[in-house]
Design goal:
- It is a single chain.
- About 10% of the residues lie in helices and about 25% in strands.
- The protein contains eight helices and 39 strands.
- Helix 3 crosses helix 7.
Length: about 700
């Protein structure tokens, strides 16, 4: 079944009621991914193994926009709360898809918004939405800002995160993932740059009524705080990030919030942050009332590979050594699942500190060991070898062999080298990604989708080309688009010839506002932006006559700002010349892991390239973003795949495909499910951003039984 993007809303009369099968008549989806426990689980069972094949589309809400859509919407009462591609918040009738209201922030942006937060005390309620660096409190009935919250209904999340002498208004932070609600507080993190300057990644709790700060946890410890000695002296003043961008999970009964963090800047060269760098790349268990640290686990010591914990952990109860244990499961980009006692932080499966080689980069000092769980086994391949290279065509294989022979490929945690590419497998986008796992709390089985594609990365000496534009590019742009500006399309587009495709104003707009996975760079001023444009155009001429005296020549500026260090060569997917992974399939998988035993129940490829499938090369798996949903009806529902624009349902016991349906665009989000008037619905956000060669647009699509 393939849906038309032109279809906006089907008549709802025929779908307004249905047999509930003895279950509830109404069930909300009131928190990100269904609940603050992070398990992506629904107790609804009207849609089940026996009838899921009968699912049909019941409405589509077409946003009439281009861009990325990653939102897992909320459904409360009879209203679906979601976001569009420009960070506006929308309220839809959850039965018909009809628009009820829209809140458009003053500063639209194409940064992703993966969800919203909802608070109520039974008398009043607030809908919280992150739009770039602002947290808005909205009236769920009208979409209007709540005037008593912060400054007329919003707060600037950048405040108090800047180091000494750093102007927070010239810094970037985006609340990509929603905050966690605990009592009368919302606990937040935020997305930050991969390069300096970056704000500190403090975890903060705000009063839901006033926006006042209730507590703060410093992820880069201040003097006298535990972990301070794992950094260089005064790193809290000069370093940034170590932030929570993927969201958090909450044990509300115990009052514990579980916070996964990412790497500190700079991601790939840590000469100025020598040490293990607590609490970067860590799972933190914090007292949700006070922010006090209860326990922590660091997944990567002194991260120089951008190995952030990418998703909220899932709370689950398992049988361990003959006892029932409340646990927390954290997935990783490396392809590992770490499982801990939720209260004590004790690992439920052994974790070994394994030795790894030293860095050969001047000034760098890699950690001599890294932690690896002994169970479960990794859900992705760990080391690229010559026998794994693509055999799709003889020409593709020969090309891959030639490239492979130039790489360093020795598995996980091999430090990057200067002027030679090192294989990172699974790639910089995982393994697991921000979609996170689903867990059946009654069986202890975890379902996680993963990318299984190698990338490469390296370092190069910073040799400014004698211009301010080159210096700005190397500092802010090369980390994603590469020193050669060619990027790694489609995730990191090429900038070669960009000035022929976009006007100078459009380039500056993207630099200052960001777009998709690209952050904004408010620290780049007008003269730097103009110099960057000239560099991208291949021109090194000074500014035109008539500029003010403050606009120095490019040469003068770079001489005062250059630094003796190394830059990342850019994210590079190991793709063959035809644009397919240069390794044998599977390229993406869906995995079922029994957390009681650490053993796999099943593992299957997830996704297809339609053109390859038409040639007889099906079930290859593809890159996938967005997570699964598991229900009491015995099904795992997931879209996620980049290129086949398909949502699927699998038997949770066996991995057997039970149903699939076409979407107008890629479903790079996690599905939501809810029940109204005795009828269960499944909703997925779909958009074209990750499939540049496919149709472009964005929509929410709802399915139900006829």
């Amino acid at each position: 079944m393939r849906l038309s993007a032109a279809l906006v809303t089907l008549a709802a009369g025929a779908f307004a009621s249905g047999c509930s099968g003895g279950g509830p008549r109404h069930a909300d989806w009131a928190a990100y991914n269904g609940g603050q426990s992070g398990d992506h689980y629904s107790p609804l069972r009207q849609i089940n193994r026996g009838n899921v094949a009968q699912l049909r589309p019941v409405w589509i809400h077409d946003l009439h926009q281009k861009g990325g859509l990653q939102t897992n919407p909320l459904m409360i009462g009879r209203t679906l709360y979601a976001c569009d591609t420009e960070q506006s918040v929308i309220a839809l009738d959850a039965v018909t898809g009809r628009l009820k209201w829209i809140f458009a922030p003053e500063q639209p942006s194409q940064q992703p918004v993966r969800g919203l937060s909802y608070w109520t005390d039974g008398k009043s309620s607030v809908l919280f939405a992150g739009t770039v660096s602002y947290l808005y409190a909205l009236d769920p009935a009208t979409g209007k800002p709540v005037p008593g919250f912060g400054d007329g209904g919003h707060i600037d999340l950048r405040q108090s995160l800047a180091g000494p002498g750093q102007d927070y208004t010239k810094s970037f932070l985006a609340m990509t993932s929603p905050g966690v609600i605990y009592k009368d507080m919302i606990i937040t993190g935020g997305r930050e740059p991969e390069t300096e300057p970056a704000l500190r990644g403090d975890i903060r709790a705000f009063d839901v009524r006033t926006g006042a700060v209730r507590w703060v946890f410093h992820t880069i410890p201040h003097p006298g705080e535990p972990g301070y000695d794992t950094w260089m002296p005064n790193s809290w003043k000069t370093s940034g990030s170590a932030n929570n961008w993927p969201g958090m999970s909450l044990d509300a009964k115990r009052g514990i919030v579980y916070v996964p963090t990412g790497s500190a800047v700079n991601d790939f060269y840590g000469f100025d942050r020598l040490g293990n760098d607590l609490y970067a790349d860590s799972l933190l268990a914090l007292n949700a009332n006070t922010g006090k640290l209860l326990w922590h686990f660091q997944g990567v010591h002194h991260d120089i590979w951008d190995r952030d914990f990418p998703a909220p952990p899932a709370l689950v109860t398992v049988r361990s050594h003959g006892r029932t244990v409340d646990a927390v499961a954290q997935t990783s980009k490396q392809g590992f699942v770490f499982l801990f006692n939720r209260v004590t932080g004790k690992p439920l499966f052994p974790i070994a500190e394994r030795p790894y080689p030293a860095s050969t980069v001047p000034g760098e000092k890699a950690s001599p060991t890294q932690p690896l769980p002994l169970l479960p086994a990794p859900y992705t391949r760990q080391r690229l070898t010559a026998d794994m290279l693509t055999t799709r065509t003889p020409a593709a294989h020969a090309w891959a062999v030639g490239q492979f022979n130039t790489f360093i490929s020795d598995g996980q945690f091999v430090p990057l080298s200067v002027d030679r590419q090192t294989v990172v497998f699974p790639g910089f986008d995982g393994g697991a990604e921000w979609g996170g796992p689903a867990v059946n709390p009654h069986t202890g089985v975890l379902y996680v989708n993963a990318n299984d594609i190698p990338w490469t990365g390296g370092l190069t000496e910073n040799r400014p080309e004698g211009s301010l534009g080159a210096s700005v590019y190397e500092k802010h742009c090369a980390v994603c688009h590469g020193a050669d500006r060619r990027g790694s399309p489609p995730s990191f587009p090429s900038l070669v010839g960009i000035t022929h495709r976009l006007s100078g104003a459009a380039i500056l707009k993207t630099v200052h506002e960001g777009k998709g996975r690209m952050p904004s760079f408010p620290s780049i001023d007008q003269s730097q932006g103009e110099a960057l444009q000239r560099f991208l155009a291949g021109s090194q001429t000074p500014p035109a006559a008539g500029r003010t005296a403050a606009h120095h020549s490019d040469k003068q500026e770079v001489e005062s700002s250059s630094a003796d260090r190394y830059n990342f060569t850019g994210y590079r997917k190991f793709y063959d010349p035809d644009g397919y992974p240069a390794v044998q399939p599977p390229w993406g998988t869906l995995n079922a892991i029994d957390l009681n035993t650490g053993k796999y129940l099943w593992k299957i490829p997830l996704g297809d390239y339609p053109e390859l499938a038409a040639q007889g090369m099906a079930n290859t798996g593809t890159e996938n973003y967005g997570g699964p949903l598991v229900t009491a009806g015995g099904i795992v529902i997931i879209a996620a795949t980049n290129f086949d624009h398909t949502i699927r349902a699998f038997d949770s016991r066996t991995g057997k495909l039970l149903w699939s349906a076409g979407l107008p665009y890629s479903g790079n989000a996690t599905p939501a499910t809810y029940m109204i008037d005795g009828k269960q619905y499944i909703v997925i956000a779909a958009s074209g951003a990750r499939d540049a060669g496919g149709p472009q647009g964005a929509a929410y699509v709802a399915f139900a039984l006829p």
